[in-house]
Design brief:
The complex is a heterodimer of chains A (about 800) and B (about 350).
Chain A (H helix, E strand, L loop, with lengths): L1 E3 H4 L3 E2 L4 H10 L3 E6 L9 E10 L7 E6 L6 E5 L9 E5 L15 E3 L2 E3 L2 E2 L19 H4 L15 E5 L10 H10 L4 E2 L17 E3 L7 E10 L8 H9 L7 H13 L4 E4 L7 E5 L5 E3 L5 E3 L5 E5 L2 E5 L3 E2 L12 E8 L1 H11 L4 H6 L8 H16 L2 E2 L3 E4 L7 E5 L1 H7 L5 H10 L3 E4 L3 E5 L10 H12 L20 H14 L4 E2 L5 E2 L1 H7 L6 E2 L10 E2 L4 H13 L5 E10 L7 E10 L1 E2 L9 E2 L2 H14 L8 E3 L6 E10 L9 E6 L1 H6 L7 E7 L10 H4 L11 E10 L4 H9 L6 E10 L8 E10 L8 H19 L2 E2 L2
Parallel strand pairs in A: 13-16, 28-32
Antiparallel strand pairs in A: 1-11, 2-12, 3-11, 4-5, 4-7, 5-6, 7-10, 8-9, 14-22, 14-23, 14-24, 15-22, 16-19, 17-18, 19-20, 20-21, 25-27, 26-27, 29-31, 30-31, 32-33, 33-39, 34-35, 36-37, 37-38, 38-39, 40-42, 40-43, 41-42
Chain B lengths: L1 H15 L4 H12 L4 H8 L5 H41 L17 H15 L3 E2 L5 E3 H4 L26 E3 L5 H9 L4 E10 L10 E11 L4 H16 L6 E8 L2 E14 L2 E4 L4 E11 L1 H6 L8 E8 H9 L12 H7 L16
Parallel strand pairs in B: 1-4
Antiparallel strand pairs in B: 2-3, 4-5, 5-10, 6-7, 7-8, 7-9, 9-10
The chains are: A alpha+beta (about 800), B alpha+beta (about 350).
């Protein structure tokens, strides 16, 4: 909502200055978004007369004009307008002036070798209208004596742009804003004695509101003005509109705009001669069409509120009029409409048709239903003043009467909500200033709500009015008490934070990427999940919710590789989506590493990053988080985006658990298809929701400290096994021999090739044997040795290598 | 007697020479070998007359000790010399680079969330969460924003189905609804998380982060709200003086509603929070609307309290001098490295939020 202090003063008596005004607007909840001085520099634009025109020597379409700008010196101005002619009075902008529309600062310039001193302006360039075909033509009668004077009247008033919250339609009119200011002590609201139409002639255009289902129009006021002469608006009106950045169009349109801006009363004007057999306000029928004033054709649904006549739809009630009954400069008889349309209906119609207009914006927020007559009186009389003609009586059709709302307000509620007190006297003053009528009943105030405040319906609304106008600075700060009765994080939230920092501590940079992704990338990683489309994505490459974090990480990894980085690790912890219902999401930590370890190192051997790097990061992280790696079970079934033979999945316990993690190399086909240039790309995913939280808290885990100081022995074994046998099977077999005595098992060599039969391999392990009860003697050790060999051979078909 | 003295003098002199390890060992054998000079003398002790025997034995032992010490010292001297020579040869250029290390970082948004949680933890808030996909009821209707309410226009919403019942939450406020439906009052929670609006330019991203706050009890009023936010802002920006302004605003789910501005100034192109006479809007808040409480079966005549919503990304930008919101989600290695935090920098109360 744009206003000026000058306009406010039409409604407000105040001696305070503009800086105070800006502060007070914000204090009562009418946030000042910006303050601009529109007229600064506009005084440079002068009324001028073209004395002579000559064809430009070097350009067919240009003219060189001698212009009288009221100074001794006649200015030479190059001009391309076809209507530039001798004797024309127009508007001249000197070098140094800033053209309002283009914001270009003029300089003395040579145009095809002829020096042009300034410019003659079109209305469009001055933001006066859309007229851009030629330069402004001013009436010689009016302006002959003004040559050399500023065209725009001088205004010190700044353009103040307010952000009006959707609950305050009343402040979409200057008077509403003035009322709020007055209530807060910033001046006094003027009591405007508005004149009323005095007419004996009847409004002869018949108006009927159909009692359709959910009829959106509850009342329709109108008056007829005959024999008008539509014209340019007078200067005061033009200036007013220009002062808030609106373009004057014609007197009739300008008046309706003025009334709307002044008291938030939208009006509509019909060319009465174009209305066939009276007006019917009714619900539209499916498929009806009409051309609106925005020159677009709209196809209507069932049940939209239309203003129609014998021929069909004239306009959408409260949203936009149609071209068929629009007014022109030659319009003679006009019908002025001032109606009430219900907000919900306005909103649903405009949403369906994707139509946004100033009227719609106001009606959907709620117009004062009692302003119908005020609007007609004000507008009709102004039109008559400017355009002449005769006004008819006002006709109002109603199918519902608007109810006057009342509230019982318990004054104690104010202190209960705000924490401070104001006197009942102050309450009275504020509420009365805002337009409430108050009756004191024993314990309550009985309040009649002003009809322009559709937002007020319960006691809490009254508290808000009172505290807002009193000032939020009166609310006392109550310092919080430092006390915690409940733990801040749940176990799983703690795990989230722990994993996040555990992964980062392994050299991964944390990324946060969109929850949505490119369907092409997602396709690579969606595995068995179904694609979740966003109906209205911001762009086609962000069209689906991600089924995996990899899609985004890989895309960004590729971008980073393109930036010239080679060895990188990034990770993200966040949601992936498995369905389109609330809750169908899992939290995942996903890491991705590219390139080599120890690239170009003078000391370390360079190698590609590989599946065992990813596995280490997963296992170490889980161990750090408190899970027992002795129980981990790993196999090689992984989704198709992993390398089929260089990837694995991890369970916390064999057979009993959900998948906790995947790790491995990314499938080479994917790397190829996204054209990524890297030696190696490995990743992992840890699924937080599948991680059963350790039952023992840190406190419990640390309960007992038990170690053995008896001598330990290390024995090495080399087994020859079939290639399919997994190291994990061998280790499990060994540890099953005696879990008390075997304290550690380590694979230290895997070998295939010479001396080993085909399809077999040798796995060498080192087993640490230690008792917590005694020092084992040779005999004991020998027994264990034998039983290790026997068990492994039995369970895995291995042969001890001799 | 003079024999052992001679031996002593003789060998002491010998051992003073520059000797090799072999030569010393040779001397050692000569003296202490099975038939060595000293060993032989010990065998003789028995033949020494009773009267002299004691003295002889004592002298012999003394000489033995002295010679042995001489030999040990000599050996250790040579060994030390040898080691030193060896070490000298092993000298490396320690200015060569160390073995490579990689350093991970925590994203500034995550760090900021941890900071926020830490601050609110201190005054008794616990952390709640809710899903990113929400139904229209939790995101709007229950929050007193019925269908066809113009306030819905302030939220450009991503929808997941054509009839607009399922959407990506446009704010963290639906967590209020879920929390209050699930438990009984009092409530004292914060809910950080991802939020989505179909809006994208330099200052708007289609995804961003918010933290919701909710405190409902029997007598929580606007003074508590002001106190809580005043405390939070001071702690978060880690400054002594902070200018804060509450001004009336409107949100359908709170009444009265307020927006909070903090004072700032621009110094050398950098934003300085706390002083200065410019105002910057950083959050929205208010007293939870009775309609919202009714929707979640909390009796508004018995319980009341406040709620707030803060843009996390924006807080991070202000605190850490980050200019471009879009860069948060661009995953540029250089940016992450520059603005990221060491994983060991866990914000805590006792240690301070940041280094």
């Amino acid at each position: 909502m744009k206003i000026t202090f000058d306009w406010l003063k039409d409604h407000l008596d105040t001696k305070l200055k503009e800086d105070k005004l800006l502060e007070q607007l914000t204090n009562v909840g009418l946030e000042v978004e910006s303050v601009v001085n529109l007229s600064s520099g506009l005084d440079l634009f002068k009324v001028a007369k073209i004395l002579k025109t000559e064809k430009h020597p070097n350009a067919d379409r240009l003219k060189v004009c001698d212009v009288d700008v009221g100074e001794k010196e006649i200015k030479k101005v190059v001009c391309g307008a076809p209507n530039a002619r001798e004797g024309l009075i127009t508007i001249y902008a000197p070098p140094g002036a800033v053209v309002p529309k283009s914001k270009v600062k003029l300089v003395v310039a040579k145009i095809r070798d002829v020096t042009s001193c300034g410019m003659l302006c079109s209305e469009s360039e001055l933001n006066l209208s859309d007229e851009s075909d030629g330069i402004t033509e001013l009436s010689s009668k009016k302006y002959e004596k003004s040559i050399g004077k500023s065209y725009f009247s001088k205004s010190d008033s700044n353009l103040i742009d307010l952000s009006i919250t959707p609950n305050r339609p009343d402040c979409l009119g200057v008077r509403g804003i003035a009322r709020d200011l007055a209530a807060s002590g910033f001046g006094k609201l003027k009591n405007l004695k508005e004149k009323k139409i005095k007419s004996k002639s009847k409004q002869i255009v018949k108006v009927k509101i159909n009692k359709d289902k959910n009829q959106a129009c509850s009342s329709f006021g109108s008056c007829l003005i005959t024999n008008v002469k539509n014209t340019e608006s007078p200067k005061w009106l033009k200036d007013k509109l220009v002062s808030i950045g609106q373009k004057p169009i014609s007197a009739i349109v300008d008046v309706t705009n003025y009334v709307m801006l002044d008291i938030n009363r939208p009006l509509h004007v019909y060319d009465a001669d174009k209305i066939e057999k009276g007006i019917v306000v009714r619900n539209s029928k499916f498929g009806e069409e009409f051309t609106a004033l925005d020159n677009k054709s709209y196809k209507l649904d069932d049940g939209m509120c239309v203003i129609s006549d014998g021929k069909g739809v004239l306009g959408l009630g409260g949203i936009i009029g149609g071209t068929r009954s629009g007014t022109e400069f030659d319009t003679k008889n006009i019908l002025l409409e001032s109606a009430y349309f219900k907000p919900r209906s306005i909103r649903s119609t405009s949403k369906k048709l994707n139509l946004d207009t100033d009227a719609k914006f106001r009606f959907e927020r709620g117009i004062d239903p009692l302003s119908i007559e005020d609007g007609l009186n004000k507008a009709a009389l102004l039109i008559k003043d400017i355009c002449g003609g005769e006004i008819s009586k006002i006709d109002i059709q109603r199918i519902e009467t608007s109810k006057i709302k009342t509230i019982k307000f318990d004054t104690n509620l104010f202190e209960k909500i705000t924490g401070f007190k104001i006197s009942t006297k102050e309450m009275f003053k504020i509420l009365e200033d805002l337009g409430f009528k108050i009756k004191k009943e024993s314990k309550y105030l009985k309040l009649t709500i002003p009809t322009w405040r559709p937002d007020i319906s319960q006691e809490i609304d009254i508290v808000e009015e009172l505290v807002r106008v009193t000032g939020y600075d009166k609310i006392k700060i109550i310092d919080p008490i430092k006390e915690r009765t409940k733990s801040t994080l749940t176990q799983s939230q703690k795990l989230f934070h722990f994993l996040q920092r555990a992964i980062a501590s392994k050299g991964y940079l944390e990324a946060i990427t969109w929850s949505f992704t490119d369907t092409n990338y997602n396709d690579h990683f969606k595995d068995k999940n179904k694609e979740i489309k966003i109906v209205n994505p911001i762009s086609s490459d962000l069209g689906v919710l991600r089924n995996s974090i990899f899609s985004n990480l890989i895309m960004y990894m590729n971008k980073n590789l393109d930036r010239g980085f080679k060895d990188l690790s990034i990770f993200e912890i966040g949601p992936i989506f498995t369905g389109s219902n609330p809750g169908e999401q899992n939290t995942v930590v996903c890491g991705l590493s590219a390139g080599k370890k120890s690239r170009l190192s003078w000391i370390e051997k360079e190698r590609n990053i590989d599946v065992f790097d990813a596995k280490r990061d997963v296992v170490q992280t889980l161990v750090e988080a408190g899970f027992n790696s002795d129980k981990f079970f790993i196999d090689s079934e992984t989704p198709n985006y992993y390398h089929p033979s260089k990837s694995g999945r991890l369970f916390l316990n064999k057979g009993k658990d959900q998948i906790v993690a995947y790790f491995g190399e990314i499938h080479p086909n994917i790397i190829k298809s996204i054209d990524m240039k890297t030696e190696s790309l490995v990743g992992f995913e840890i699924f937080l929701d599948n991680l059963k939280l350790p039952k023992k808290t840190l406190k419990d885990q640390k309960a007992k400290f038990e170690v053995s100081d008896y001598q330990k022995s290390e024995r090495d074994f080399a087994f020859i096994v079939n290639k399919e046998i997994k190291a994990q099977d061998l280790i499990n077999a060994v540890s099953s021999v005696d879990q008390k005595l075997i304290s550690n098992i380590k694979v230290f060599d895997v070998y295939e090739g010479e001396n080993i039969p085909k399809n077999q391999k040798s796995i060498a392990i080192s087993v640490t044997i230690q008792s917590s009860e005694k020092t084992l003697n040779d005999n004991d050790l020998e027994n264990i040795n034998n039983s290790i060999i026997k068990t492994v051979e039995n369970k895995t078909g291995a042969k001890i290598r001799s | 007697m003079s024999d052992i003295k001679n031996i002593h003098n003789n060998y002491s002199a010998k051992l003073n020479n520059n000797l090799s390890l072999e030569e010393i060992n040779q001397i050692k054998t000569e003296l202490f070998g099975k038939n060595g000079l000293i060993s032989s003398q010990f065998k003789n002790i028995g033949s020494i007359p009773e009267t002299d025997r004691k003295k002889f034995a004592s002298d012999l032992n003394q000489i033995k000790d002295e010679l042995q010490n001489l030999i040990t010292n000599k050996i250790s001297e040579i060994e030390t010399k040898k080691i030193n020579e060896k070490l000298e040869k092993e000298k490396v250029d320690v200015t060569l680079p160390e073995r490579s290390f990689v350093r991970g970082k925590i994203h500034p948004v995550s760090q900021t969330i941890d900071e926020i949680s830490s601050i609110f933890s201190e005054i008794g808030f616990s952390v709640e969460e809710g899903p990113d996909i929400e139904n229209e009821y939790n995101n709007f209707t229950a929050l007193n924003t019925p269908d066809n309410h113009p306030a819905r226009d302030m939220h450009d919403t991503f929808y997941l189905n054509e009839n607009k019942e399922i959407l990506l939450r446009t704010h963290t406020s639906p967590v209020q609804i879920r929390t209050m439906l699930k438990d009984k009052p009092p409530f004292k929670i914060i809910a950080p998380g991802r939020t989505y609006r179909s809006d994208s330019d330099q200052t708007h991203a289609p995804m961003f982060h918010q933290v919701e706050g909710l405190h409902i009890d029997k007598d929580i009023n606007m003074g508590h709200l002001k106190g809580c936010l005043n405390y939070f802002i001071k702690e978060f920006f880690e400054v002594e003086k902070i200018k804060m302004r509450f001004r009336p605003s409107h949100f359908p789910f709170t009444e009265p509603s307020a927006e909070v501005d903090i004072g700032y100034e621009i110094k050398d192109g950098k934003i300085i929070i706390g002083e200065g006479d410019q105002w910057l809007e950083i959050l929205g808040c208010g007293m939870v609307h009775p309609n919202v409480l009714k929707n979640v079966k909390v009796d508004p005549s018995k319980y009341q309290g406040y709620a707030f919503g803060i843009g996390i990304d924006r807080l991070a930008m202000l605190k850490y001098g980050i200019n471009d919101l879009r860069a948060f989600f661009d995953c540029d290695y250089r940016w992450l490295n520059h603005f990221g935090f060491d994983p060991l920098d866990v914000p805590t109360n006792y240690r301070g939020l940041s280094r």
